[in-house]
Structures are given as structure tokens and as C-alpha cells.
Design goal:
This protein is α+β, with helices and mostly antiparallel strands and 397 residues long. It is built from 11 helices and 21 strands. Helix 4 packs parallel to helix 11, helix 5 runs parallel beside helix 7 and helix 7 crosses helix 9.
């Protein structure tokens, strides 16, 4: 006979969460943020406000003997007018570091976006519940990774045994900043986002500041990186600078220097890896901005096109090729004073040959298989013995 467990409700507090820089108490519960309040107060862009509140890399981390866990959530799902509904966000369960199940989000709000105007309307919905059962009946570390692409307010946590914060396992903290590709657009699940793939392979604690559409060298983001404790830092920069056409070559170099200078104010000796853009055919030699391909939109397909003129590159317009030249030059220039600064060419993570095998479905964002490939290659190049994030030799090694 099926019987309901005797539920214990545990208050949702900061010591049960990893990967968030701030937690906001709302009328419903607890909303994780990936930028601190001071940075959010300086932002006026709705896209960034949406992105930083989507909890890519944020997870509940518990120590418990519970065999059943329920989490009440109020999500905000993003859909596009004229397109089929996007798949529901997923919660990934890991037990003692191993995959142990998935569950879809349900209920909640829907933000409907009109691609012609980028305006949005919200339809309210009820609180949903995510349940995991048949967990091992022993003390264990339980991780519940929140959907990477849906704002998720945490309303209540219930288990059938007491819960405590998971202990510190001595893993190094990796702080990463990037664009929607790092955020996880078109990844299959929260642990399938490429920084999560790399972090799990590298045995590090991830703080993912991949912010969809918003890797713009914003000073408030640099200050957030500066002020966040971390053992390892990476910055993947370029695609948003190009596809939103926000600056020219004259401005990009000094802005990148300033961004790195700010990070170094708080992390003078931390290994810092600057990663240039992966291959994106539409912007390799053609500047931005990027816009939806309206003929494809009429057919119910989302494809992006480059709207810039290659003839303007000599006058300072930016392409991904120009961005890579500037980034590698700046790392070489700073290397004499900063031996802990490193450069990784994004084409080593996903290049032209990869694009022929695994094309970008919308011409900008990787699919699930490509996220895994990028994550595996990053882990190989960054975390292995000769990589910039290799663990220092320990006594007795």
C-alpha cells in the first residue's frame, strides 16, 4: 500500500544553496540571484534582469538520510509568440556526486516574448511541486540543480528525514562569466550547460555568471567578480559585444583592460583564464548587430542573421575574428606583469570543423551535444595537469 511520507519542512536558507551571489525574500519565498543587489541596482536592461535571475548553476546541496524530497517552486517560463511552447525546465538530481534523476518544472508564470518588438507579457500561474523519491536510505549528499533557463522562486522544502547543509568537501571554487552560451541556451538540462559539464569533470564548485545576452564588459559585473571569493576565474567574452554591436575596436581594448583590472583588485594572484568566442559563422567576418531571420520566423523557425557590413571592419566594427586578435594581444601584453593570466582560443573548444559536424541550430547557440563537447574540451584544457586550473601539487604527490 502506498503511504505518504511524514514530511519535515525545512526553512530555505543561504547555507542550503550554492552558486548564487544573492538571495531575495519575495512574497512567495526565496529568489536566487546571480548578481548582487548593488549590481542589479545599476542595471537598466530587462534582458540582463531576466538572465541573472535564471539560476544557471544554482543548486540546493543537502546532507540527509531522506528517501523523498519535495520542493515547491514558482517558476517563470519564457516562450515566444508564434512558436510552440519551449520545453519545461528540468531539475537535475545528483546523489553523492552521481546523476540520480530528473524532474520537470510545472505550474508557474509564462513570459511571452514578441520577437518583432522584444516586448513581453506575463501570465500568472500556480506554485508547482517537484518530487524525488526512492533515494538511498542512508546519509548522503543530495544536490538539486535548478533549471538554468527559468526564473525559479523557492517556496518550500519538504523531506521525510531531517536536512542539514552539506559539508565542505574541499573543492576549489570556479567563478565563470560569459554569454548565453555559458548561461546554457539550448542545453538539455542544468548539468548539461557546458560550464556545469566542465565543473563536474574538474571536481570544482561552480559559480556560473553566464548571463544571456549580457556579457558586455559591464563594470558592475566586473565588480561582482572582484568581490566574489574564488580559487579560479574565467571570462568568456566576445559574442555579445559583436551581436549587439555595442562598441568599436577603439573602445573594446581599453574596456577589456578595465574589466580585468577590476577583477585583479580583488583577486591579484588567482588563476584567470580569458576565453575568446567559439566559432559562429555568421559573425566570423561580418559585424553585428544580430537579428531574427524574419523569413524563418514566418515559418515558425528561430534563426539569427548578421546585419552588419563587412566593409565597415577596417573602420573599427567588430567581428569575432577581430575580437580574438584583440583578446590574445591583450593577454600577451599583460603577461609580463600578470603571470597568472592565461588565454584560451574559443576555436579550440568549438571550431569550423565542429560546426560542420554539429551546426548551431539557430546559427548562434550550441545544442545539447555541443554543450557537452565544449565542456569536455574546456575541462581537458583547463583542469588537467598542464592547464591553468590544474590543482597544485600536494605534499606526498
Amino acid at each position: 500500500m502506498h503511504t505518504e511520507p511524514d514530511w519535515i519542512t525545512t526553512p530555505l536558507t543561504a547555507d542550503l544553496l550554492r552558486g548564487a551571489l544573492d538571495l531575495e525574500r519575495t512574497e512567495h519565498g526565496l529568489l536566487p540571484h546571480r548578481l548582487p543587489a548593488r549590481a542589479r541596482a545599476q542595471n537598466t536592461d530587462p534582458q540582463l534582469a531576466m538572465a541573472e535571475a535564471q539560476p544557471s548553476g544554482v543548486r540546493l546541496v543537502l546532507r540527509t538520510a531522506a528517501t523523498a524530497v519535495e520542493l515547491d517552486i514558482l517558476r517563470t517560463k519564457r516562450d515566444y509568440s508564434g512558436f510552440p511552447p519551449r520545453p519545461d525546465g528540468l531539475f537535475d538530481l545528483r546523489v553523492d556526486g552521481r546523476p540520480a534523476g530528473q524532474a520537470p518544472a510545472n505550474g508557474g508564470k509564462v513570459l511571452m516574448i514578441d520577437l518583432a518588438t522584444w516586448s513581453g507579457t506575463v501570465t500568472n500561474g500556480p506554485v508547482g511541486t517537484v518530487r524525488f523519491t526512492e533515494l538511498p536510505a542512508r546519509e548522503k549528499d543530495v544536490e538539486i540543480w535548478l533549471p538554468h533557463n527559468e526564473t525559479t522562486e523557492l517556496v518550500a522544502l519538504r523531506t521525510n528525514a531531517p536536512v542539514a547543509p552539506a559539508p565542505d568537501r574541499g573543492r576549489r571554487v570556479w567563478l565563470h562569466h560569459g554569454s548565453s552560451i555559458s548561461h546554457g541556451t539550448d542545453a538539455a538540462s542544468p548539468t548539461g550547460v557546458w560550464p556545469a559539464v566542465a565543473a563536474l569533470l574538474g571536481d570544482v564548485e561552480l559559480i556560473n555568471l553566464g548571463l544571456g545576452g549580457s556579457a558586455m564588459l559591464d563594470p558592475f559585473t566586473a565588480r561582482a567578480l572582484r568581490d566574489t571569493p574564488a580559487d579560479l576565474i574565467s571570462v568568456k567574452m566576445g559574442i555579445n559585444i559583436v551581436n549587439q554591436d555595442v562598441m568599436r575596436r577603439r573602445a573594446f581594448g581599453p574596456a577589456l583592460h578595465g574589466f580585468l583590472d577590476t577583477i585583479r583588485e580583488g583577486h591579484p594572484d588567482t588563476p584567470l583564464l580569458l576565453v575568446s568566442p567559439i566559432h559562429c559563422a555568421i559573425h566570423e567576418t561580418t559585424p553585428g548587430p544580430t537579428a531574427p531571420d524574419l523569413s524563418a520566423v514566418e515559418e515558425g523557425r528561430l534563426l539569427f542573421s548578421a546585419m552588419g557590413d563587412p566593409a565597415e571592419v577596417p573602420t573599427g566594427k567588430l567581428t569575432l575574428g577581430v575580437i580574438r586578435e584583440e583578446m590574445s594581444r591583450i593577454v600577451r601584453q599583460r603577461a609580463a606583469e600578470d603571470p597568472h593570466l592565461h588565454y584560451l582560443d574559443g576555436l579550440d573548444l568549438y571550431g569550423e570543423t565542429d560546426a560542420a559536424e554539429l551546426p548551431l541550430p539557430d546559427r548562434v547557440h550550441p545544442d545539447a551535444a555541443t554543450h557537452r563537447r565544449i565542456g569536455e574540451r574546456f575541462a581537458e584544457r583547463a583542469f588537467t595537469d598542464k592547464g591553468p586550473f590544474a590543482r597544485p601539487a600536494q605534499p606526498g604527490d
